[in-house]
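Worked example 3 (structure in, sequence out).
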């Protein structure tokens, strides 16, 4: 039985009747609440990438090896993925307001502990706590922005929320690199404190209460999902280190992954008290949006994982120069998100907008697949700007379509699934592209090396090695460095080429969604 909803914030009236263009949870100071919610969202998304560049410094400071230090990233990702599916149940159980505030507070405390960690074991534990706290922030921020806003303004709110979600991964490596270079790697975590404190103060003062619904917890469903997600992440993170299926460890993870995924699907479709309402998956737009979120995760996060090391290692860019070159990508996202929000408010069909966004992104990836070591800075900036324009056009209409026909009571669960699938896509995309990059570098190096003969340079003629002596060795090393650079560039191009085809394949799928021309009033709640 659902308990009676708590009274709203002061100056907040009762919830409007269904079918009206009024906010489900009206608040007195809406814009200030939006600032707090966006600050919390940016805080969480930044931390998915900001720590990556500080890993080498953490390794030496914490006395870790190259293999074990990766658990700093893995523990955060796994903990976040496992905790995210229970967001809806936990919000119903203790109240969305209380859970949101506790999550932000927990994230701040965990960030302080990460910054003060003195050993690898401490860091892994604190990062796992940070991942659990951060897992609830993204779904709750999205659902509270929708619930506190009129349905007719949902596209605009999704555009604002999307700014933090899309720009965070772009700013993360740049900010993390700057803090690591000019301060200390610990400031990668301490920087969360001022932003988090501001967000927490605003949320405590303005976040509305939600009614509590003490529904039964689906322990079996949660356990199956946790096993599936954990096994999936371990396959991705450990595969390259232990030579994939040549290792019994990966076979074990794969068995758990396949078994867990199969049993999860059966359980969610047949259980009376499933962790997620099966009605959500019968909504065509929402189900398709889940798969599109995987594509967005692959394209956005994999690209952002590839570009910084490419620019710094092959082109010699500094951390600051890398940030400047990548920044226009965020500008493109900001511009196109506002355009997409305007189109949604005008009642434009979301399907061609999503398809157009994927086409524009495909164009940018095609341009990137034609790069060489001689590509100039303007070309890199333009490609990033175009890609940002495309991704922004995809993200907002997709979210609007996903929630347009979803019952308001399902928004928190729906938001947790959308964010979860985006995270899964990001993990899979980064791992896949990184593995392909390493293997293609080896292949390209062998192909290029086979063409370096004495007809190219007399330095590589073994018969002349005594005559050249030390100079000959230096010449061979110079040639090897250049072959490595060319091989790496070819491998990056291969990754961009693959992502281009994956993006192009998503274009026709946009028209499988139902037509959604206007964000109308919320549908009546089901009995």
């Amino acid at each position: 039985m659902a308990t009676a909803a708590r009274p709203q914030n002061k100056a907040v009236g009762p919830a409007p009747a269904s079918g009206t263009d009024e906010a489900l949870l009206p608040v007195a100071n809406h814009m200030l609440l939006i600032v707090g919610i966006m600050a919390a969202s940016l805080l969480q998304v930044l931390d998915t990438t900001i720590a990556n560049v500080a890993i080498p410094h953490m390794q030496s400071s914490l006395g870790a090896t190259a293999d074990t230090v990766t658990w700093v990233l893995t523990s955060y990702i796994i903990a976040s993925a496992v905790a995210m599916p229970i967001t809806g149940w936990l919000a119903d159980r203790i109240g969305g307001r209380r859970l949101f505030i506790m999550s932000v507070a927990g994230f701040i405390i965990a960030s302080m502990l990460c910054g003060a960690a003195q050993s690898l074991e401490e860091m892994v534990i604190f990062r796992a706590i940070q991942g659990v706290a951060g897992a609830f922030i993204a779904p709750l921020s999205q659902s509270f922005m929708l619930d506190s806003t009129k349905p007719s303004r949902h596209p605009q709110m999704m555009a604002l929320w999307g700014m933090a979600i899309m720009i965070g991964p772009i700013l993360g490596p740049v900010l993390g690199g700057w803090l690591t270079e000019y301060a200390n790697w610990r400031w990668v975590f301490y920087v969360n404190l001022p932003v988090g404190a501001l967000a927490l103060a605003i949320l405590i003062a303005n976040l509305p209460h939600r009614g509590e619904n003490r529904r039964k917890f689906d322990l079996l469903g949660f356990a199956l999902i946790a096993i599936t997600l954990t096994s999936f992440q371990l396959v991705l993170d450990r595969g390259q280190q232990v030579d994939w299926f040549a290792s019994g460890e990966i076979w074990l993870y794969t068995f758990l992954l396949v078994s867990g995924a199969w049993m999860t699907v059966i359980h969610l479709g047949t259980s009376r008290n499933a962790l997620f309402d099966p009605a959500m998956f019968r909504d065509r737009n929402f189900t398709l949006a889940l798969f599109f979120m995987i594509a967005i995760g692959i394209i956005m996060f994999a690209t952002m994982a590839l570009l910084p090391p490419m620019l710094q290692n092959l082109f010699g860019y500094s951390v600051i120069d890398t940030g400047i070159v990548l920044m226009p990508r965020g500008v493109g996202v900001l511009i196109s998100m506002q355009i997409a929000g305007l189109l949604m408010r005008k009642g434009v069909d979301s399907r061609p907008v999503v398809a157009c966004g994927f086409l524009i992104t495909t164009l940018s990836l095609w341009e990137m697949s034609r790069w060489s070591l001689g590509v100039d800075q303007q070309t890199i900036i333009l490609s990033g700007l175009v890609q940002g324009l495309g991704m922004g056009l995809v993200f907002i209409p997709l979210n609007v379509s996903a929630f347009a026909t979803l019952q308001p009571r399902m928004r928190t669960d729906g938001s947790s699934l959308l964010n979860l699938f985006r995270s899964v896509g990001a993990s899979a995309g980064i791992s896949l592209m990184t593995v392909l990059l390493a293997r293609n570098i080896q292949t390209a190096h062998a192909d290029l090396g086979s063409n370096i003969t004495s007809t190219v340079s007399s330095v590589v003629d073994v018969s002349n090695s005594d005559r050249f002596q030390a100079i000959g060795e230096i010449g061979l090393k110079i040639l090897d460095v250049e072959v490595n650079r060319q091989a790496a560039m070819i491998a990056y191009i291969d990754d961009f080429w693959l992502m281009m085809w994956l993006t192009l394949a998503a274009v026709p799928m946009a028209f499988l969604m139902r037509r959604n021309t206007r964000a109308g009033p919320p549908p009546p709640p089901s009995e």
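Notes: The longest helix spans residues 465-506. The domain at 16-212 is CATH 1.20.1250.20 (Growth Hormone; Chain: A;).
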